[in-house]
């Protein structure tokens, strides 16, 4: 837990760390957080540096007080006037391109620091030399886009306003054509604890200022407002501008309606340092109120403002560290989790393929059962009756022909078995025909289902890296050609050998022809019906055997095509699972480290 101790600027450098149960002082909290950041990988070094900077600021009670405003509002002039120095260059053109820090020092000096580690430039002779150095390194015209890689400039001066550790920061104005200056100032806000925001009447509040203020409000806990260049306006105009600005501050930007808006004329204040009528100019500049009220307030409330600001910044840094640690962890785990999900998707695909296979097999078996039941019904019903009738017709036709009974008997003996065999063959052919219809329906269904599955699992089957086995496109025609039953040859299978003829005494020529024909009919009648039922049974049996064989082939072929996909997926599954395990092993230590650090991260 962080407590803003009243004496936060007195560092707790005592070696003894407070007992765990006691709330930590803020400086101890920051110290521990810095040590924590130092235990992290090198890319957290800047967090440790920022915390070290906080520690220093805490120990020195150093408050960063920024002077913000659009370019040309008079920020540099204002600081010069307030501190009674002539060091900061001023101009109607956008000038300052890097932050200039003004802090307490017994003498006026200037130090220019560089981003790329070049040796600092130090000037300590006179205000004029300092101004000239600043013009050289800090001014946009001589250092466009900060080509010289200046980090910042620090001026020291013996102003009592700074004696308590407050540092003023002259910021690059935003909203000029030099966009990088706006960014530099936004970046700088992270290091500022309080700020003065300069506005002026020409024009009183721009869209850019409003947008910038919104961001400032988010980042800086304590803000003061100045309306500069009041010399350019008459009193009634001033009133109008004042009302206008206050309206925007409270209505549009959510500031308190009683927020103070100090009126200043910075150039008068600047002149006061040199003029004979210095006191009068100073009084007219309005800077005295700012000095007393704003900076006086800052002196009185510095510790409170500083502790509030620094604890906000501390929270921000730590939240950043935690977020970074979590991002790193998820950077390690996300690819593994994604790969693991892919492995699970393959397991799912294998399962659903096995289920699909079973359902296909069931569908085939059901179709076969239906077919056999149809054959049986055919044999028992229509087909039986039809064949019997056809045999009777054939026998009648022979007996009614213009033959002697003996001739008719011998014709019946050779013709009827052939007729019966043809009927059997026809029945078998019709059964085979309907079996083949089933084969075609099932083949189409199977190849369609297979093609759909191949499409559905194409990505998984491709192994995601294009190394997976290329699946052959299923062809119904090929499948049908393998399974289809060939129509059996005519009636050969049904035995067409001539039957025996009736006993000679039945053909007794002394009997009437009609009696003899009746005797022949009676003789062949039972033969016909037993032959018909034998042939029907034979046809049904033969059809069943053909269907059994075809279905066995069909099932084997369906299983094989599913198995091919399942085997491919199993292979890919094995490879991917191994890759996941390898990757998991490879990041194990990093992951454990990051998890441990996230747990240990302060504020968590
Ligand atoms: N009339 C008038 N001009 C001012 C005042 N303060 C500053 N200026 C002028 O405004 C211009 C910009 O001032 P400067 O301090 O460089 O602005 P900065 O860009 O905000 O730092 C300079 O020409 C200053 O002399 C003021 O109170 N009244
Ligand atoms: Mg300036």
Description:
The structure is a single chain. By secondary structure, this protein is an alpha/beta fold. The chain folds into three domains: 13-54, no CATH class; 61-285, P-loop containing nucleotide triphosphate hydrolases (Rossmann fold, 3-Layer(aba) Sandwich), CATH 3.40.50.300; 348-571, no CATH class. The protein contains 15 helices and eleven strands. The strands form two sheets. The protein has a nine-stranded mixed β-sheet with strand order 6-5-7-4-8-3-9-10-11, with helices on one face. It has a two-stranded parallel ribbon with strand order 1-2. The longest helix is centred in the middle third of the chain and has 94 residues, at 287-380. The relative contact order is 0.09. Bound molecules: guanosine-5'-diphosphate (GDP) and magnesium ion (MG). Guanosine-5'-diphosphate (GDP) binds at residues 69, 71-77, 90-92, 95-96, 173, 228-229, 231-232, 265-267. Guanosine-5'-diphosphate binds at residues 69, 71-77, 90-92, 95-96, 173, 228-229, 231-232, 265-267.
Summarize the SSE layout with pairings:
Blueprint: E1 2-3, E2 24-25, H1 26-38, H2 45-60, E3 63-69, H3 75-83, E4 100-104, E5 109-114, E6 121-123, H4 127-137, E7 150-157, E8 166-170, H5 179-188, E9 194-200, H6 207-219, E10 222-228, H7 235-252, E11 261-263, H8 266-272, H9 278-285, H10 287-380, H11 382-399, H12 405-456, H13 458-461, H14 476-483, H15 513-600
Parallel strand pairs: 1-2, 3-8, 3-9, 4-7, 9-10, 10-11
Antiparallel strand pairs: 4-8, 5-6, 5-7
């Amino acid at each position: 837990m962080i407590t803003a101790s009243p004496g936060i600027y007195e560092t707790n450098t005592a070696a003894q760390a407070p007992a765990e149960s006691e709330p930590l002082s803020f400086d101890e909290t920051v110290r521990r957080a810095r040590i924590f950041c130092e235990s992290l990988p090198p890319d957290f070094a800047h967090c440790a540096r920022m915390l070290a900077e906080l520690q220093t600021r805490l120990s020195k009670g150093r408050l960063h007080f920024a002077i913000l405003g659009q370019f040309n509002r008079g920020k540099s002039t204002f600081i010069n006037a307030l501190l009674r120095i002539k060091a900061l260059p001023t101009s109607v053109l956008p000038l300052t391109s890097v932050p200039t820090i003004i802090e307490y020092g017994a003498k006026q000096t200037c130090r220019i620091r560089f981003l790329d580690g070049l040796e600092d430039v130090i000037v300590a002779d006179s205000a004029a030399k300092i101004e000239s150095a600043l013009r050289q390194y800090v001014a946009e015209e001589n250092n466009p886009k900060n080509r010289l890689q200046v980090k910042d400039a620090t001026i020291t001066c013996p102003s009592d306003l700074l004696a308590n550790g407050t540092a003023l920061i002259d910021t690059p104005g935003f909203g000029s054509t030099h966009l990088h200056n706006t960014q530099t100032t936004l970046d700088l806000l992270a290091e500022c604890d309080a700020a003065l925001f300069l506005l002026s009447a020409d024009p009183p509040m721009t869209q850019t200022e409003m947008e910038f203020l919104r961001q400032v409000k988010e980042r800086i806990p304590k803000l003061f407002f100045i309306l500069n260049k009041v010399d350019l306006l008459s009193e009634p105009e001033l009133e109008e501008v004042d009302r206008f600005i206050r309206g925007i501050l409270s209505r549009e930007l959510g500031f308190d309606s009683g927020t103070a808006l100090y009126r200043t004329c910075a150039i008068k204040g600047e002149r006061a340092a040199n003029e004979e009528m210095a006191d009068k100019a100073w009084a007219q500049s309005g800077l005295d109120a700012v000095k007393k009220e704003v900076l006086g307030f800052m002196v009185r409330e510095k510790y409170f403002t500083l502790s509030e600001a620094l604890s906000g910044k501390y929270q921000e840094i730590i939240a950043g560290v935690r977020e970074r640690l979590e991002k790193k962890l998820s950077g390690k785990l996300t690819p593994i989790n994604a790969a693991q999900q892919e492995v699970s998707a393959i397991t799912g695909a294998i399962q659903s393929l096995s289920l699909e296979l079973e359902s296909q097999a069931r569908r085939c078996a059901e179709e076969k059962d239906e077919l056999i039941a149809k054959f049986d019904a055919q044999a028992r019903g229509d087909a039986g009756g039809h064949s019997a009738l056809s045999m009777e017709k054939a026998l009648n036709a022979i007996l009614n022909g213009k033959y002697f009974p003996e001739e008719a008997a011998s014709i019946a003996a050779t013709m009827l078995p052939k007729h019966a065999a043809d009927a059997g063959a026809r029945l078998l052919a019709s059964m085979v025909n309907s079996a083949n219809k089933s084969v075609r329906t099932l083949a189409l269904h199977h190849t369609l289902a297979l093609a759909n599955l191949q499409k559905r699992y194409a990505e998984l089957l491709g192994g995601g890296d294009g190394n997976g086995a290329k699946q052959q496109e299923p062809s119904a025609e090929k499948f049908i050609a393998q399974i289809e039953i060939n129509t059996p040859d005519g009636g050969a299978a049904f035995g067409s050998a001539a039957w025996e003829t009736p006993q000679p005494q039945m053909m007794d020529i002394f009997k009437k022809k009609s009696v003899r024909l009746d005797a022949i009919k009676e003789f062949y009648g039972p033969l016909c019906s037993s032959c018909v039922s034998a042939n029907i049974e034979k046809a049904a049996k033969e059809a069943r055997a053909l269907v059994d064989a075809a279905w066995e082939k069909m099932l084997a072929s369906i299983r094989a095509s599913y198995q091919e996909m399942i085997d491919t997926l199993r292979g890919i599954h094995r490879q991917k699972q191994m890759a996941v395990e390898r990757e998991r092993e490879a990041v194990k230590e990093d992951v454990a480290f990051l998890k441990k650090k996230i747990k240990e991260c302060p504020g968590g």
